[in-house]
Amino acid sequence: MAAHDVFDLGDFRLTSGAVLPAAQLAYTAAGTLDAQRANVIVVPSAYGGTHSDSDWLIGPGKAFDTDRWFVVATNLFGNGLSTSPSTSALEHFPLVTIGDNVIAQHRLLTERFGIARIALVSGFSMGAQQTFEWGCRFPELVERIVPLCGSARTSPHNRVFIDGAVAALDAAGPAVVGRVWAAWGLSQAFYRNELWRGLAGATTLEAFVDERYGPTAFNGDPRDLRAMFATWRAADISAREPFAGDFPAALRAITARAIVMPARSDTYFPPEDSAIEVAHMPHAELRVIPSDWGHAAGAGSNPADDAFVEAALREILAAPAFTAQATPS
Amino acid sequence: MAAHDVFDLGDFRLTSGAVLPAAQLAYTAAGTLDAQRANVIVVPSAYGGTHSDSDWLIGPGKAFDTDRWFVVATNLFGNGLSTSPSTSALEHFPLVTIGDNVIAQHRLLTERFGIARIALVSGFSMGAQQTFEWGCRFPELVERIVPLCGSARTSPHNRVFIDGAVAALDAAGPAVVGRVWAAWGLSQAFYRNELWRGLAGATTLEAFVDERYGPTAFNGDPRDLRAMFATWRAADISAREPFAGDFPAALRAITARAIVMPARSDTYFPPEDSAIEVAHMPHAELRVIPSDWGHAAGAGSNPADDAFVEAALREILAAPAFTAQATPS
Predict the structure, then answer these.
(1) pLDDT on residue A1
(2) CA distance linking residue A148 with residue A326, whole number of Å
(3) What are the φ and ψ backbone dihedral angles of B267, each rounded to 5 degrees?
(4) Which residues contact B268 (CB under 8 A, 6 or more apart)?
(5) Is A266 among the residues known to form the active site?
(6) Kind and range of the H or E element at A119?
(7) Is B205 on the interface with A (CB under 8 A)?
(8) Please, what's the b/e burial string for B130-162 (b: 16 or more CB within 10 A of its CB; e: otherwise)?
(9) Are B25 and B49 in contact (CB under 8 A)?
């Protein structure tokens, strides 16, 4: 994993009123901030992942070309790098919401880097949830968003399967969570078409699943795993004033140009949920990743999906921006 | 549960060569066998269920009208009524396949009842797997089949999620299996559209899930639960001579008139798998249940789906038969 920097948030008051003492946001920054402080791309991280999971997108000549863009990749609270139960002295780690994560990232970008605008926010899965949150909470800053395989509000079905994973975690520990997760992470079609053949040298279904979802698939501190599940479960861009649960109103507040990219075969975040979101977003396009890789389609898992995602990212970065002022740049 | 009868199989040799000592097949029979001994409907049971789960279909005036049909509802080995680890003195209960179940049912029907033909076999889920097996193994007897939300061969994706459930069962016991199962049993759309409202008096998502998938959802003997999972995992109509794994050839051997009924939103047995099966079956129609109830759509779960299934059952029972001799009756 690439070395990361840390932004000290001090005693960070969460939207719930609880405080994370001496909170830290771990991140990496690559590229050079331009004179307008506006060539910024923000890449939030996913459940159980880190900033380095986006390495496939970030670098010279890549979709987030660091010769042109200043790219900040952030770490979710609870992931073990940003403040987490495992790094905290707190006995009861509070619920940290997606909103809290984005507020902390906003402080990093404004206080440390003095950014004036954000050209693009794009993350995968829980990173996509943060992406929607950025667009909704800071519409005057965010010109474009591309949420990959994620939602603006955790669906009830997601909550049910998160609760199943937490039940397995509580009763049996992290080693079992991967096994109960294996059938969710990739799709029916992935397994039907045996797309695992040749991956990680696997020659049997069982060997592939052991390799990818074995005892170390969820190998973090169980408290951290629980904290991230809690963040995911509570995700909802409308769960605050002035929306007070009015989800369509919160989606309408996302004035950024958006390409919302679910995967056709994603069993967590099915395209139907994304279509509902896009219908309320003023400048959004639904662009479904035509993949059998299920949720993993948006995670840099294979060349065809990667090319499809990268093309959308390059396209939106070349397109005029929308912001809350509705002034195309 | 209605009282059931028992058919003694004696020391029952499985297709593997192993023997189930003093094996018993539990079943119910309703209606009257006609003079031709040909007005027979067979209804195999599903994972964790019993014959009584088909009560919604069986009775005077119902789809399987016992004023006209002789209806035999059978119990899967391992379900606690037919021979199961919990009823057996065997220390190591052998794998009992779907084929073994159907062979035992065939003995019941021929030895006890002397049936000449079977007008229809129709079961749900693992009952559908037995339905396909009946059509493939005894094409000269079986005139019609309607598999509901099941497959002729367990898909690789099924195997992965069965393994997840078994891992949870082994590590944490039956109480947790329901929780990790909850997100599979009903669909994303079921939860999105809050179809649980009003069911079992539930007023919250959590209360509904607790009620349906709480600690007693998988309340059998863990050994029985494992045995049924093993049967499910191994299901494959082509896993025997003369097919030797040639799945299309085994499907072509199903000469019965068939309506194959997956549910649109079933996450275990998606319609894509059924379409592949139907493409190889000479007299089969694919008829997708247009439901948001996921796998449960075929289980007698709600009036709309029940009516859709019942209409298909009545229709096929009124239609000419096909058998291996290809002589429409």
Answers:
(1) 58
(2) 24
(3) -90, -15
(4) B125, B149, B158, B161, B184, B295
(5) yes
(6) none
(7) yes
(8) bbbbbbbbbbebbbbbbbbbbbbbbbbbbbbbb
(9) no
Q: Three-state SS for B190?
A: helix
What's the pLDDT tens digit per position in A78-122?
Answer: 999 999 999 999 999 999 999 999 999 999 999 999 999 999 999
Type of residue at B60? P
Separation in Å, CA A326 to CA A146, A321, A323? 18, 9, 5
Residues 262-321 of A with CB under 8 A from B: 267, 270, 272-273
* Over residues B48-54, mean pLDDT: 96
Residues A129, A160: contact at Cβ < 8 Å?
Answer: no
Structure tokens at B113: 């009842």
CB B123 within 8 A of CB B131: yes
Compute the distance between CA of residue A27 and CA of residue B51 in angstroms, rounded to an integer: 58
What is the token pair recorded at A171? 């009763």
Question: Is-contact B267 B295, C-beta < 8 A?
Answer: yes
What the block records as the tokens of B14 is 């499985």
Tokens at A272, concatenated: 């139907």
Q: Residue A214's pLDDT is what?
A: 85
Positions in chain A short of pLDDT 50: 326-329
**β-pair partners for A58:** A64
Closest CA of chain B from A43, distance in Å = 28
Question: Which residue, among A168, A201, A200, A203, has the nearest Cα to A183 in the 3D structure?
Answer: A168
Answer for the pair A132, A52: CB distance below 8 angstroms, yes or no: no
Q: Is A188 on the interface with B (CB under 8 A)?
A: yes
* Contacts with B192 (C-beta within 8 Å, 6 or more apart), sequence order: A155, A156, A157, A272, A273, B292
Other Cβ atoms closer than 10 A to B272: 13
ipTM of the complex: 0.90
Q: Does B239 touch chain A (CB under 8 A)?
A: no
| Residue-level pLDDT at B228 | 98
Domain boundaries, chain A: 5-155+234-318, 158-213
User: CB of B109 within 8 A of CB of B85?
Assistant: no
The yes or no reply on domain A5-155+234-318 and CATH 3.40.50.1820 is yes
CB-defined contacts A:B, below 8 A: 113
Q: What gap in Å lies between CA B225 and CA B218, rounded to an integer?
A: 8
Distances (CA, A) of A277 to A149, A190, A298, B64, B87: 13, 26, 18, 45, 53
The strand pair at B5-13 and B19-30 is best described as: antiparallel
A197 touches chain B (CB under 8 A): no
* Confidence check: pLDDT of B328 > 50: no
Alpha carbon of A84 to those of A50, A109, A285, B22: distances in Å?
13, 21, 35, 58
The angle formed by the CA atoms of residues A110, A113 and A114, to the nearest 5 degrees, is 50
When CB atoms are compared, the residue of A179, A192, A267 closest to B163 is A179
